[in-house]
Amino acid sequence: MTREEALPLVERLMNPETPEEKCSEILVALEQGLACPHISDYIFWSTDPNLTPEKVVDRSMTYKAIAL
What's this model's pTM, rounded to 2 decimal places? Predict the structure, then answer.
């Protein structure tokens, strides 16, 4: 998933008017597309008052899985 594809999805997730069932679908798509299992933490549990969709996507795209 590209940054341009992920950005509108994160914007929808961060919109309080988006229905919960739609949020679940979007979150699954983002986790699969970006391969970042922490994206929901970045959106829903962040303590950053200046959090933007751009910051969430950029942070998610830098995630690298650890090979065990």
Answer: 0.85
The whole-angstrom separation of Cα 43 and Cα 68 is: 27
Domain boundaries, given as residue ranges, for the chain = 3-61
Over residues 3-33, the pLDDT tens digits come to: 999 999 999 999 999 999 999 999 999 999 9
Task: Indicate the burial class of 66 (C-beta count within 10 angstroms; 0-12, 13-18, 19 or more).
Answer: exposed
Per-residue pLDDT tens over the stretch 24-66: 999 999 999 998 989 999 988 888 888 899 999 999 999 888 8
Is 39:30 a contact under the CB 8 Å cutoff? yes
DSSP string, 32-58: HHH--TTHHHHHHS---TT--HHHHHH
